[in-house]
User: Which sequence fits this backbone?
């Protein structure tokens, strides 16, 4: 990787409230600019960008030379921590990294919580599309669950509660090498999880729902391509809601893959990413106001 493509970090103190003044995100930039939209790959909560390694290896085979930027979220991997981790700010921080890498309008790929970040990114900045990896876009049920566990999450019972969430990811469905990768890249620190879930814990649920609705409405109106890759078939009610909310959505459910379909079938996932090289939304999409 040449020097211009290496991740950039700053030493500015955490005394400001604007993402562009916070430490930059660490990442890896590969490929060369061409007519294909670049890919931005975002990992899930507690993991780091190494989680994409199997997909990147397959992508080199099926879509060679594609420009790809993999990032460590704030407080993960090699990225410095931030004093706050609200989804809008993290999405704007990702956009700053995209600008620093001098990428064109990207396809943003987000796993788990990063699918929410990718969705907000596409609603706030120019994007050629979103790939949502196994993340529900109905925020109220999960917010309600997290709030019901708030006392335990904030106290000494955090490890046991996090183990409950980890068990729901069903990593036992993955090949052994993928299971090892998941375990070796996960760093479930209490302060980090609470930071990313602070909105769910403290913000009125109606406001969180309004934020999500505004973002999805913006994507719908702009007809931004949107692919969901799920580890199991979607519940019928959610499938119907999703189709009505985002008529352009495409759902690809890989039964028996659990929460990491990209690791259960990295070759298949890379092939789905290769198809995004032809994505062209009718117009760019941006929310001019924070909700």
Assistant:
């Amino acid at each position: 990787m040449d020097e211009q493509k290496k991740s950039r970090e700053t030493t500015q103190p955490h005394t400001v409230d604007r993402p562009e003044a916070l430490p930059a995100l660490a990442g890896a930039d590969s490929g060369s600019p061409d007519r294909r939209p670049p890919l931005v790959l975002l990992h899930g909560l507690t993991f780091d960008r190494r989680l994409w390694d199997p997909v990147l290896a397959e992508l080199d085979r099926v879509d060679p030379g594609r420009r790809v930027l993999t990032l460590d979220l704030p407080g993960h991997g090699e990225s410095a921590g931030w004093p706050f981790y609200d989804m809008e700010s993290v999405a704007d921080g990702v956009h700053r990294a995209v600008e620093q890498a001098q990428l064109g309008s990207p396809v943003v790929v987000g796993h788990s919580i990063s699918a929410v970040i990718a969705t907000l990114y596409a609603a706030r900045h120019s994007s050629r599309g979103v790939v949502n990896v196994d993340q529900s876009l109905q925020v109220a049920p999960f917010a309600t669950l997290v709030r019901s566990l708030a006392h335990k999450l904030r106290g000494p019972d955090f490890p046991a509660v996090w183990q409950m969430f980890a068990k729901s990811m069903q990593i036992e469905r993955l090949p052994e090498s993928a299971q090892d990768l998941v375990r070796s890249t996960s760093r479930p620190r209490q302060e980090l999880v609470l930071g990313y879930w602070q909105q769910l814990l403290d913000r009125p649920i109606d406001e969180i729902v309004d934020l999500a609705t505004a973002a999805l409405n913006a994507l719908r109106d702009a007809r931004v391509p949107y692919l969901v890759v799920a580890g199991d078939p979607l519940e019928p009610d959610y499938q119907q809601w999703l189709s009505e909310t985002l008529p352009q959505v495409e759902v690809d459910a890989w039964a028996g893959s659990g929460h990491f379909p990209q690791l259960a079938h990295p070759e298949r996932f890379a092939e789905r990413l290769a198809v995004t090289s032809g994505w062209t939304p009718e117009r760019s999409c941006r929310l001019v106001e924070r909700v």
Q: What stands out?
A: Residues 1-16, 283-291 have pLDDT under 50 and may be disordered. The CA atoms of residues 140 and 205 lie 6 Å apart. The chain has one domain: 3-277.
